[in-house]
Amino acid sequence: DAASGCNVARTITWTATDDCGNSSSASRTFTSSDEVEPQLIGVPPNASLQCGLPVPDAVVSAIDNCDSEPVVSMNATTVPAACGYSLVRTWTATDACGNTFSASQTTTFEDTTDPILVGVPDATSVNCGSVPDGEDFDVTATDNCVNEVNVTSSFVDAGSGYNVTRTITWTATDACGNSASASRTFTLSDS
Questions:
Q1: Band (147; pLDDT cuts 50, 70, 90)
Q2: 114 class by beta-carbon count within 10 Å (0-12 exposed, 13-18 middle, 19+ buried)
Q3: pTM here?
Q4: 42: nearest Cα among 26, 56, 22
Q5: What is the Cα–Cα distance from 105 to 128, expressed in whole angstroms?
């Protein structure tokens, strides 16, 4: 037997010998080639996860009919979506003869978690001449997904005379429609 790359050659020789010691030989060489794809083992099924969770590890290997150690490579691609995103992991097994086989797993990350408001001020007393509204504060929001978060504000005044309050409400809404609100009441005083 002789191996060359991915081909295996086997030469068989037949020899005929008579009682007088005369002999004759003939040889033939048979070459086998590998045209069978390797097979992947351990590619996980498609999954859905909450944004922010880690992708579970996957141990993917390959077997082949001729190559005892086919090479396995992995490529990951992120696909944005209107609400969340998908991670597509593709594993490819390649044997010594260049035969390849690929399989993919798609993990869809969904956003069902409300954003978190950042920078909401404490309630306090303010002078009537400097009555704040929501835009006077640097209130932002973070989200567990890749979506941008829109922060809006509104206010309502209540009371009269010396008992006047302004309640400001900030609302953060992500691209998936998840929202969070926080309100602070400011007491107006004439100092």
A1: low
A2: middle
A3: 0.65
A4: 56
A5: 60
Residue 38 backbone phi and psi in degrees, to 5? -70, 165
User: Residue 53: what are its φ and ψ, rounded to 5°?
Assistant: -80, 150
Identity of the amino acid at 83: C
Residues 105-142: pLDDT tens digits?
Answer: 999 999 989 999 999 999 888 877 677 888 889 999 99
Residue type for position 8: V
Structure tokens, 111:
């956003």
| 120 strand-pairing partners | none
CA distance 115 to 179: 6
Task: Tell me which residue has tokens 């005929």.
Answer: 16
How far is Cα 88 from Cα 105, in angstroms, rounded to an integer?
6
Amino acid at residue number 114: D
CA distance 111 to 51: 5
* Amino acid code (one letter) for 177: G
Closest CA to 6 of 87, 60, 69: 69
Residue 146: pLDDT band by 50, 70, 90 thresholds? low
Specify burial of residue 91 (Cβ count, 10 A radius: 0-12, 13-18, 19+). Answer: buried
In angstroms, what CA-CA distances link 121 with 73, 102, 153, 156, 186? Answer: 51, 54, 13, 16, 10
Contact status, residue 165 vs residue 186, Cβ threshold 8 Å: yes
